[in-house]
Sequence to fold (198 residues):
Amino acid sequence: MTTIGLVRHGITEWNVLGKSQGISDIPLNDLGKLQAISLANRLVLEGEWDVIVTSDLSRAKETGQIIAAKLNLSTNIYDKRIREINCGEIEGTTEEERFKRWGSNWRKLDLGMEKFEDVSKRGHEFLTELATTYSDKRVLVVSHGALIGLTLQRLLPEQFQKTQLDNTSLTILNIKQGVWNCSLYNCTKHLDNNFSNI
Fold:
């Protein structure tokens, strides 16, 4: 059985401001770094991981580097396929700004946003390849909310008709004989407990 831990990156200033980030390369803020430390401390206590792979965007890379340092893993595996959805013209805007600029039906306009189906397809292909490459290993993947959510909806459509992933949440997938299952979803208990001081 191969185990894949999906981690959404720590919080950024654009998250706080409600701005769409997409593929804009926004770093973690101070709270985001603390969140990553808390998750890393939790992961140390919960068992060993063999490999860590991150998106090549800095907010995911930074989160991965903090975790990898605690787990004594190399952080040199970055993959563009697990970048966030490309949000086209809406990147850097808030919902209020989108309403002002394009009206209440802005979601129906062609603003250069990557299609959900394309995002889920690249996420699915990535995870399938990862499960083959690291068969019977435990692999951490640090990525982004929409990418993880849309991939889950494609992998397990009956379980995930909708998804909402919090910053530094941990979701655990297992694959055995080609069958995926999810044993943990959007878990942030490390943010509620005092894992930042371990």
Observations:
- The CA atoms of residues 81 and 122 lie 6 Å apart.
